[in-house]
Write a structure and sequence with these properties.
The strands form 2 sheets. The chain has a 4-stranded mixed sheet, covered by helices on one side. Strands 1-2 form a two-stranded antiparallel sheet. The chain is 30% helix and 28% strand. The chain is of the alpha+beta class. It contains 4 helices and 6 strands; from the N terminus they run ββαββαββαα.
């Protein structure tokens, strides 16, 4: 089993890796976020052209089982929670997929509620 540590005030809490994503973590929105490789973080990405709902089944298998990934169709955002070293390459891949995308087919109707 793997464990993670999370700093809460003056206390360092040791939890199973699978539970770390449920504890408060720093939230970043910039691909160039500053965090130690082994630090648990939450990264909120908002691709401009790529459909986040379509990204999840592509990217989820690339993440460890203890990590979390979810798409929010209302905001068009993708939420990643894992160790910073694991989140960075996924975020880079999201950025590259977004740059290669030609639009959000199938996403606009869901996002606008139509």
């Amino acid at each position: 089993n793997y464990f993670a540590t999370v700093v809460q005030g003056d206390v360092i809490v040791v939890v199973p890796d699978a539970s770390a994503r449920q504890l408060p973590t720093p939230v970043y929105t910039d691909l160039q976020f500053k965090a130690a490789d082994d630090e648990w973080v939450t990264l909120l990405l908002t691709p401009r052209k790529a459909c986040v709902a379509q990204l999840v089944p592509i990217l989820r298998p690339l993440m460890p089982q203890a990590a979390h990934m979810a798409a929010d169709m209302k905001s068009g955002s993708l939420v990643l929670a894992d160790r910073a070293a694991k989140v960075r390459p996924i975020a880079t891949l999201v950025d590259r997929l977004d740059k290669a995308a030609t639009g959000k087919p199938g996403c606009e109707a869901e996002k606008t509620g139509s």
